[in-house]
Amino acid sequence: MTLHQTHLVAFAAGSAIHGIQSVLVWKLWRHTAGAHRPEAKEGFAICLLAFLWQAGNLWREMAITLGYSEDTVALKSGVIVQSLALLSFPVLFSYLVPECWSAGRAARVLAKAARGLRYPLWLFASVSALSIVLYEFGMRTPVDPDWSLHLTMNVMLFYFVTFFVLSRGKSQNDKASRSLPMLRANKAAVIASSLAMGTFFFVLWSPYRIGRTAWMELAAQMTSVPFTIAMAYRLYQFPFMDAFLRDVLTGAALLAGFCVALSIGPASTVMLPLWMATVAVGLAFAKAPLSRWVDRALLGYSEAIEDQEERVAGAIRGLTQLPEFIARVSEILRHELEADWVDTGSERRADAVADFRIPGSTPMWLALGPRRGSRTYMSRQLRVASRAVLELATQHERLQREDAERRQLVQQHELREITARAQMRALQAQINPHFLFNTLNVLANLIHSNPAKAEHLTEDLAEIFRYALESTRLERVRLDDELRFIESYLEIERARFENRLTYSIDIDKSLGSMRIPPMILQPLVENAVKHGISPKVEGGEVRIIARSGADRVTICIEDTGAGLSRKSRGGSGIGLPNVRDRLAHVYGDAAVLGLEELSTGGTRASLMLPQHEEVHA
């Protein structure tokens, strides 16, 4: 790999690095307020100037590659951009020197001298810039451009020494205060300033520079890269600087390896493509471990971001219960993101530093509170949070679905249990031995006195048993079938009470096919006979009325018996609690059972069912 090719690769990489960083820091400057705004402004200035410097170098090398002569505007423009950027560096450096009140006397004097140079540097840079432009276009110049550039590089060497001394002293202070982010920033500044100081001293003053000037000049020209990396460490509290550092450091190492591999590779046109392909594949496999090493060694992270993402995702996937999910997610992310608090809810929180929408059938929001230590969330934390949002959406949907299915299964199981239990209670309560014995006694008397009536009563009793047994296998029966069963029951009771009991059934014809739970009316009819008609000497009437309303069906069981004042109908026995339990499990809150005393005497039980349960034959 020739020196010219190395120049092209190096300047192209430097331009890309500085261009990307300039855009990032410009965005930071626009959206930053308070004490960090001057830092962002200084960072943008040095990144932009470094980009112009490297772009000017690349421009000049590309013009040479394309065969432009020194007299062409293309080549002169690249030289002008390169030279003006170089002249601007000392002026900018004079503004970057911090005030060192706590440093030693020598450091304070050095910093004061470096800051005081800004005023003569403005004049010098202006005159020198004018001289370079005039020189490139063949005009007389106030000063010699070569002398101006040589002096500029010496002034830059002075500033590199200043930065090295001040950064070295600041590193000691930060080490004592155990401020790890600032300690890394100052270490980066020490390394960058020492590299720049060494290369510039070698190019300008070393007696061993003869024969090696070209390569050392390239090294000096590339010192803007470690300086902007040090600036990225200094702006480390801003988002995306950690990602920039990781990618730049990893990319620079891979690029250096690629250039070295090409330099030592075979010169044969046959073997060179194979060698380049081998090197490219090797570097591709080296990228992941190199990125992890940069994360650990240069950014202070104990694990790679991919490992942290997978660990957080695994922890979220491990939450298998919905109540545990809501409680544990906040705890997991609060620890992983180093947040003061993390909250998940259906509404956005106004006090959140950052929030993320969790998609799904029931959208939620992940809200992050301030980061511990008043720090800013870096791109690493934001990336982990973004990956967590995807896992949260998937896991939340799955848990909601499983919870709904579980509830449905439990509800169905409970409904089957309560239905079976209610049916068994109904059989125990309504077809109990007393009812059976009373019916058999009536039959025994009627066999001799009225055989036809006894036969009819036997058929009614058989109908009751048949319906009761068959209905245990059904969840819904037609209202007509239920009323035929009730009519058989009332016929038997009328045989017992003789002329003391009468009944009537009045329903809308359209309601005959309506589906209701089996044996839901029998306990109400039995209560009317047992507690209403039976205590009254003269007996009474039982009326069953069903009417359809706008959105519900009302079935009333009325009696003209003793009324509620004679005996409570509150449901202390088996019948009414049985009916209420079954209604609650079948219809929820949509069905109502009411009990009231009539002004004319007697009691009314009102069963109100939702209209949509009606099914026509």
**General shape:** rod-shaped
Domain count: 3
N-to-C SSE string, H for helix and E for strand: HHHHHHHHHHHHHEEEHHHEHEEHEEHEE
What order do the strands of the largest sheet run in, or round the barrel if closed? 5-7-8-10-9
Average pLDDT, all residues? 80
Tell me the CATH topology of the largest domain. Rhopdopsin 7-helix transmembrane proteins
Spatial gap, N to C terminus = 91 Å
Which percent range fits the helix content? 55-70%
CATH class of the largest domain: Mainly Alpha
Q: Describe the biggest sheet?
A: 5 strands, mixed
Number of strands: 10
Number of helices: 19
CATH architecture annotation of the largest domain: Up-down Bundle
Task: Tell me the name of the CATH homologous superfamily of the largest domain.
Answer: Rhodopsin 7-helix transmembrane proteins
- Low confidence ranges: 568-572
- Summing up helix and strand content along with how strands pair, one would put the structural category as alpha+beta
Proportion of residues in extended strands: 5-15%
Rg measurement, Å: 46 Å
Give structural notes.
The chain has 617 residues and is α+β, with helices and mostly antiparallel strands. It folds into three domains: 3-239, Rhodopsin 7-helix transmembrane proteins (Rhopdopsin 7-helix transmembrane proteins, Up-down Bundle); 306-398, no CATH class; 431-613, Histidine kinase-like ATPase, C-terminal domain (Heat Shock Protein 90). 66% of the residues lie in helices and 9% in strands. The protein has 19 helices and ten strands. Strands 5-7-8-10-9 form a five-stranded mixed β-sheet, covered by helices on one side. A three-stranded antiparallel β-sheet has the order 1-3-2, with helices on one face. Helix 3 runs antiparallel to helix 5 (118-136) and helix 3 (73-96) packs parallel to helix 6. The longest helix has 52 residues, at 379-430. It is rod-shaped. The two termini are 91 Å apart. Residues 568-572 have low confidence and may be disordered.
